[in-house]
Amino acid sequence: MIDSTRIPLIGPEVRLRADAVRNRALLLDAAARIAADRGAAAITMESVAAEAGVGKGTVSRRFGDRNGLLRALLDHAEIQFQEAFLSGPPPLGPDADAASRLRAFGPALLRHEHAHLDLYLAAEPPAGRRYAVPADQLRHRHVAMLLHEVLPGADAELLAHTLLSSVDVVLTDHLVRTHGMSLDRIEAGWHDLLDRLLG
Fold first, then answer.
1. Considering the domain boundaries, does residue 174 fall inside one?
2. Same domain membership, residue 191 and residue 94
3. Is this structure's pTM higher than 0.85?
4. Cα atoms in the 13 Å half-sphere on the side-chain side of 48
């Protein structure tokens, strides 16, 4: 059973009534069953409603749209990843120096998203909302903060976007599937970019 009683870190904080919590758990369990049986591409508002035995309006009220539903499914894994880089052990966590944390972040993000690839690709928001996803905004702020620490005079905000784009889930899936690149090669590319940047 998916735990839906805590407040997700990837979206706005919303306090739910007990019946709403039950409905949310019911819908997320239904979506997880569909993903396990048929893959994330099979998750639609209609399929989840049918699997859960509720009307489509119930799904829409709880998650807004398909992207909101898919993002909610990713919540647990995303929170674990966030905890690792915000408060976990070094080299990813705060007890390491900024340069070491930057070196560890790209590969950790790459491996994390690859482990949940089907859901991340299905949950990819439309272009107009791509940079409004709270989890992605947190990642950007984190990388920009580390860059500002190691390169005080640089445009850390822009550089963070540049670095993160090198391990973007859509790009890495394309490179792996279409160009036969390994995750190790993409990871090495992150380190090469950092080495050139940090000089």
1. yes
2. yes
3. no
4. 31
